[in-house]
């Protein structure tokens, strides 16, 4: 098995498997020993050889020691892969922890009577609207309600990170939700229910539409004006024609 590692000081840098395959048993090994003892002695010899100058472990240690000074572009590829894998694992752990905290917070908020009643003012009309308008469809109202929630989460999260399509989805989703509340809410409390839905949608839009400005952007592309430099003086050059050379020939007068 050949090594793909870069040569160190112009020499081939063998890996650990090459050293184990090429390292002979120590000279003091007894021929009567069993195969396990010989193999252990060979492993110990290969381990010691890999830490010598030009060995596999010595080269990896030098790459690791020089990584802070080398920077991201010059460090070894295996160090880059290890750092990326560590970062991905850290992000997954943080997201999992944040999801648990968020779920616990929602459960606590939903457990209070005031929060549940306030959410029911918006949620119950939407459930009723979906149930009324899915009777002739081949899909159940619960599936449509789940799809409605997923679209809302997509618009909220995608709009928060600045995706234009997600922000358009969030706007259409909120307008459709407000219309559903207006249509399915009881007649006596229709105005209040719609107002609460609009307020909830507006508050959530501060996250979904974060950084969005309605102020028009005006770009004035004017050519750059040359800088006036009084120390530069431009003098026009006047070229005077040279006089014609005098001729010694005398032309006789013509009759």
From TrEMBL:
<keyword id="KW-0812">Transmembrane</keyword>
<protein>
    <submittedName>
        <fullName>Uncharacterized protein</fullName>
    </submittedName>
</protein>
<keyword id="KW-1133">Transmembrane helix</keyword>
<feature type="region of interest" description="Disordered">
    <location>
        <begin position="1"/>
        <end position="34"/>
    </location>
</feature>
<keyword id="KW-0472">Membrane</keyword>
<feature type="transmembrane region" description="Helical">
    <location>
        <begin position="143"/>
        <end position="161"/>
    </location>
</feature>
<feature type="transmembrane region" description="Helical">
    <location>
        <begin position="74"/>
        <end position="95"/>
    </location>
</feature>
